[in-house]
Design goal:
The chain is an all-alpha fold. It has a domain at 25-59. It is 97% helix and 0% strand. It contains 1 helix and no strands. It has one helix at 2-58. The longest helix is centred in the middle third of the chain and has 57 residues, at 2-58. It is rod-shaped and about 75 Å long. The relative contact order is 0.06.
Length: 59
Amino acid sequence: MEFLDNKLLIAVVGLVAFYLAYKFFSLSNKSDNKSERIYQEHLDKILKSDEYKVKGRFE
């Protein structure tokens, strides 16, 4: 029985470690999401301004 208890303890510790890692990375993704959104807005603004310039030249 002691061997099974050790396996159970290792499994529980492993699950807790994976859960904590998941929480840590999901928290860090939330802060990255804001900077990613700002980056995407700037990129869209640049692409749209270039698109209008190109449309004006060829129309």
